[in-house]
Amino acid sequence: MKRGANDRLTVLISRARIARRVRQLGRRISRDFRGQPVLLVGVLKGASIFLADLSREIGLDASFDFLAATSYGAGSESSGQVRLVKDLDTSIAGRNVILVEDILDTGITLNYLARILRQRRPKTLRVAVLLDKAERRIQPIRVHYLGFSIPNDFVVGYGLDYAERYRNLKDVCVVQSGVGFSPHVLPSKKKQSQRKGRA
Ligand code: PRP
Fold first, then answer.
1. Residue 174: helix, strand or coil by DSSP?
2. Catalytic positions, please?
3. Which terminus of the chain, N or C, has fewer Cβ atoms within 10 Å?
4. Which one of 192, 194, 196, 198 would you pick to mutate in the ligand 1 pocket, going by the greatest count of ligand atoms within 8 A of its CB?
5. How remote is the CA of residue 107 from the centroid of ligand 1, in Å?
6. Binding site membership of 167 for ligand 1 (Cβ less than 6 Å)
7. CB within 8 Å of 77: residues ≥ 6 apart
8. 95 and 114 in contact (C-beta within 8 Å)?
């Protein structure tokens, strides 16, 4: 794909490693919920590719639904407040729900989403996350199915974007963009969101 003239991409997690790990996670989910249906709830947009691949490694009756959330605040730091901008289409009461995310950073988004989903009385609520930047955590969240722990680099690909680009890369890559850009000096907040035109 065409990249920005100054963007440098380095593979952090190859497509082969991702595929192996997603297969393992799918098998574990299939074992954990043997004989039961599951509802995969993807958080738009980043989780879409992970959900698509993970679901095909799950040998159970699986349904999909999607949420979209945004965190807001005036400055570059997250206010810690999250707003749901797209709710689920279906009721989750009494169902086995797996919340599927591409990346866990401060934990603010997932913490909020898990809280509101729990209030809807699912039978079980579990969390599947492809990438975890543990050192960035502000709010706690229990992850049941984790792909990879990663350092605090600015990552793109496999659903993750930089200003809405690079979601369709097959590998997870570290992006360095333009003169003076450093993932470590990005406005800290939800760095993964900051990239929407602001990075
Ligand atoms: C990313 C990611 C999570 C959130 C994680 O979403 O998909 O939803 O940020 O950050 P947190 O742990 O600090 O809350 P983003 O807002 O970039 O939207 P996108 O999925 O549409 O890219």
1. strand
2. 105
3. N
4. 192
5. 9
6. no
7. 187, 188, 189
8. no
